[in-house]
Structures are given as structure tokens and as C-alpha cells.
Amino acid sequence: MNALLPLMVAVLSGIGVALQPPTNATLSRASGSPLLAALISFAAGTLILLIAWAAVDRTSPATLKGLPAWAWFGGAYGAFFVAATAYAAPRLGLAQLLTIMIAMQLITALILDHFGLLALERTPVSASRIVGIMLVLGGAVLVRRG
After folding, report:
1. Residues 6 or more apart whose Cβ sits within 8 Å of residue 111
2. Containing domain of residue 108, as a range?
3. How many structural domains is the chain composed of?
4. pLDDT digits 0-9 by tens, 32-67
5. How far apart are CA 25 and CA 31, in angstroms?
6. Are 107 and 133 a contacting pair, CB within 8 Å?
7. Please, are residues 44 and 36 in contact by the beta-carbon 8 Å criterion?
8. pTM greater than 0.90 (yes/no)
9. Terminus-to-terminus CA distance in the chain, angstroms?
């Protein structure tokens, strides 16, 4: 596999994460409901994924038998993320919102990695990882201060 492909996917996903809150906030403002905005966002995403799965993948859903209960909650986290960003982006500003979210993602990732939770390989906490996260947290404070 091309080593550049995962990097390109990560870059495009990061752009999408930055575009999603203001897009959903527009839906939320127009409708008056962050939940309706999230529903519309998920419906569009579900349709796109259904088409892509049918056209390209077609992995049988039967392969999902026997998964641990926590494996089914990804959509719930995503639904909360979409609704929360539709609500918070116009109130906090996009840069502040994403900085806080990224900081929390990194802290959570550090904990999950350290303990090998959710079927991840254990990657112990190191001084350089902690310093990196502290720099991001410092950035979050600077963004908040304006």
C-alpha cells in the first residue's frame, strides 16, 4: 500500500473535522435545533456510506457477530460530537472549540494507549508525549485568551 495514502486520508479528515462544525451550525441556526442539524448530517453521511459500501466494499454484516458491547458505540460518540459542535461552534468560535476538542482527544488517546483500552496496543506514557500534550493544552489556553 502506498505509505502516502494514510497521511492524505488523515489530512483530508482533519479538514473535514474543521468544516463540519460550521456547516452543522448553519443547519442548527436555520432550524433552531442542533439535534435536527445532527440528524440531517448523519442522514447524509449514512446515505453516502451506504452507497460507498454497496459500490466498493460489500463486507457482510455477519462479520460483526460477537463484538464486545463497546464496539457498537462509535455512532453514539459521533452523534454527540456532531450535535455538540453544531451547538458550541457559534458560541465558542471554531478555533476555540477545535482546540479544546483536540486537547481532550489527545488526553483521552494518551490514557487509552497507556492502558491498552478498547483493543488498542499498549503504548506507555512517556515524557515527550506528556510535553506534547501540554503544548497543545497551552495552545488551547492561548486560543481561549484570544
Report:
1. 117
2. 4-145
3. 1
4. 999 999 999 999 999 999 999 999 998 999 999 999
5. 10
6. yes
7. no
8. no
9. 43
